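Query form — protein Transcriptional regulator, AraC family

QUESTION: What is the three-dimensional structure of this chain?
INPUT:
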Amino acid sequence: MLDNIFFLLEIISGVSCFMISLFLFSFTVPDTLIGRRNKRACLFIEISAFLMGCISLGFILMGGEHHRRMVAFFIQGFAPLQILLLMLALAYPIYIGNNFKRFMRKHIVYTCLLCIGNMVYFWLLNGQIGSWIYNLLLAFFSFLFIFYIRTYLRISKRWEEHYPECKKYFRKKAYPLCFLLAIVGLYAVIANILPTHRNQLIFISIYTLAYIYFALQYNKYGLTISHYIKADNIKEEVINVSISPFSKWLSSKEENRKRQNYEVIKKKLEIWETQKTYLHPKLTIQKVSQEIGVNQTYLSNFINDCYQTNFNRWINSLRIDEAKEIMLHKPDIGLAEIAELVGFADLAHFSKQFKLKEGTSPSAWRKQNNLK
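ANSWER: The structure tokens for Transcriptional regulator, AraC family are given below.
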């Protein structure tokens, strides 16, 4: 009876995970720093969903005691990696400072090493459930699991300090997702301390349902944070490093030169923007650099550093702001004509870029602002 339930649950779990991966791959986010972070963070969930789908369907080929060892291996070997990826997906859109990406790479390596250790123990050494090595690997998993939960809570607390307007959302929506992962991790430990068929079945059920709920709710996670944070400028932590006096002087001199160059570029771009040359179709960074008399590389670096985006997105942002002004003051003009006026090739491209930046279509934005 339990074997039949396992078989059915693993099919449901595997198919659901593949569908979740496709769903997250297809959804769009506003073209803001938080939105782009959220889109990149979805890759963690997509990888996690794909791995879980493959493993769940792979369980179907196992049977008897071999199946029980396979589930135990998944809980101790792959569950830490899955939980880490989901925690990184929660933390990536809201990290503040320059240390997070280094932390992320380092702990992906640690977790993969734990996964490899379990793989060697279960498959190459034919490890048995309940041995001292088994319990040691379980202790490593428990430590990493607690550490991941604690790390996310610290990152979210720091975010709340900088952006207190997000506090209410985190309490109601984000923290429950973290709590859900905590329940999954806790029951994973229980299922491996008492690795009965019943406990393993309960774990897979909880894990599958929690995973589906997490993925569906994550679709709203970055979008909601983007709406709270209107300005596309996340505050950065100041990181103190020990450097020699000469290096400090050289760095200061380079920074001053860079600041002076950026001030010149900024003034030239301000004049260029007042002329609304960005409304011309087929505009390229080469043309703009020639018009304002600035090296193309310097201009590209200035846009990347100051606006946290590339040239094309910056131009599209200026055009969309212009389109919003037209919709506000000239409500009788159609969207296709507005798209042409602000420099887009066609209405479809205009609508796509508008939705990426604003999170809604031009027509919906117009209705929200009581425009006909």
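ADDITIONAL NOTE: The chain has two domains: 2-228, 245-368.
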